[in-house]
Design a protein that fits this description.
The protein has 255 residues and is α+β, with helices and mostly antiparallel strands. It contains seven helices and 13 strands.
């Protein structure tokens, strides 16, 4: 069939619309690919935007090459993430096993309770939907309590950092939560929570627990270390709307 001028114009317009729809995804993919090629100086400048805030007393470091936690006395032991509680199949993941799971990259803003923010932080790691599918949470499981390596001041009976999240939030793709293993395309440094940390973009940063070593499924929430130490800060800690560059998806559901 011979193409008319109108048919040719329609095809051209359709092609333009398809390209325009694809551009955002192309830019995101290109940005992720190019991040690893940034000069060291530029990468260091980005990392410097993150002030180091931790309540752990030190005492260990993480060797990402070997997957070992190395304690201050020189003793080394393989890192493991334990997932237990209200699940059908409790599991224990080595660092290599976490790395072998499908990995995702996400760019997210990071908002500290002190009032500062870091925009467009590049994280990489495992989506919680992927991770938790391996253990099959029971119907009674509504929350996940994360536990950290290391020791802290004793606060309300807690001597290590703990944070609690609704399971539904961790599984919600619009919230973008992640078990991060990488930052800036490289394994997390110790100061940023190696070997693994929770990234929850729409929650204040005290929820983004570092040095994660256990995920415990439970029927009810628990007060985390930060809340027990600072009772003015609640278990639920959404970022204030005026600090967000896009609305918290949870806010629309509460209307």
């Amino acid at each position: 069939m011979r193409k008319t001028k109108a048919t040719t114009q329609d095809s051209t317009d359709q092609g333009r619309r398809t390209l325009l729809k694809a551009l955002p995804a192309l830019f995101v993919a290109a940005g992720a690919a190019l991040w690893g090629f940034l000069p060291e100086r530029a990468r260091a400048a980005f990392a410097d935007k993150f002030p180091t805030r931790t309540v752990e007393r030190g005492g260990f470091r993480f060797d990402s090459g070997r997957g070992d936690v190395v304690w201050s006395d020189g003793h080394a032991e393989p890192y493991a993430l334990v997932i237990d509680g209200l699940v059908e199949k409790p599991a224990r993941f080595s660092y290599a096993q976490l790395r072998a799971l499908p990995q995702v990259s996400r760019t997210a803003d990071f908002h500290c309770v002190e009032g500062w923010s870091v925009f467009d932080a590049p994280w990489g790691g495992v989506d919680f939907r992927t991770l938790f599918s391996r253990v099959r949470p029971l119907p009674a499981a509504k929350f996940v309590h994360f536990h950290s390596l290391g020791r802290t001041e004793d606060v309300g009976g807690l001597t290590h950092y703990v944070e609690s999240f609704p399971l539904a939030d961790l599984l919600d793709p619009t919230l973008g939560a992640l078990l991060a293993l990488d930052m800036e395309g490289r394994p997390l440094p110790d100061a940023r929570g190696a070997p693994a940390r929770v990234v929850s973009p729409f929650d204040l940063a005290y929820k983004s627990i570092k040095f994660v070593t256990r995920a415990e499924f439970a029927a009810a929430p628990t007060e985390g270390w930060w809340t027990r130490a600072n009772p003015i800060y609640p278990v639920e800690a959404p970022v204030q709307p005026d600090r967000l560059r896009r609305p918290d998806p949870r806010s629309a559901r509460k209307r």
